[in-house]
Specification:
This protein has one domain: Cytidine Deaminase, domain 2, CATH 3.40.140. 27% of the residues lie in helices and 25% in strands. The chain is globular, with a radius of gyration of 14 Å.
Length: 129
């Protein structure tokens, strides 16, 4: 099993965060066993900024296609601790395992905390079929 927190921390070191100073990294594992990482990339036009979690998910989609499923993900922000933002939770939910079983790990008080995406986003937006 890969240490996703360590991979997320390594990804955070590559973040481009001159405005917020929050260097965030994400590492995730897909159902196929592949690992993808991403970091936040800010822009002077704040709305064009991309979060680390979405960057990593989009890497997975780019490599595996639209059917990619995230099994677990880890998020690290250098010098700070918090779970994924709401937008990232929604994107993770879109590519999560059935019933929201995808695990998301982040740090709280220096310790890893793991929640399912369903716990982090209990009422995810879905388009009715």
């Amino acid at each position: 099993m890969h240490d996703l927190l360590a991979l997320a921390e390594t990804a955070a070191l590559k973040a481009y965060a001159p405005y917020s100073k929050f260097q965030v990294g994400c590492a995730l594992e897909t159902l196929s066993g592949q690992i993808y990482t991403g970091c936040n990339v800010e822009n002077a036009s704040y709305g064009l900024t991309i979060c680390a979690e979405r960057n990593a998910v989009f890497q997975g989609v780019a490599q595996e296609g639209a059917a990619v499923k995230v099994v677990r993900a880890a998020v690290v922000c250098l010098g700070h601790e918090f779970p994924p933002c709401g937008a990232c939770r929604q994107v993770i939910a879109e590519f999560s395992l059935a019933d929201g079983k995808t695990e998301v790990t982040f740090l709280r008080g220096g310790q890893p905390v793991t929640r399912t995406i369903a716990e982090l986003l209990p009422e995810a937006f879905v388009i009715p079929s």
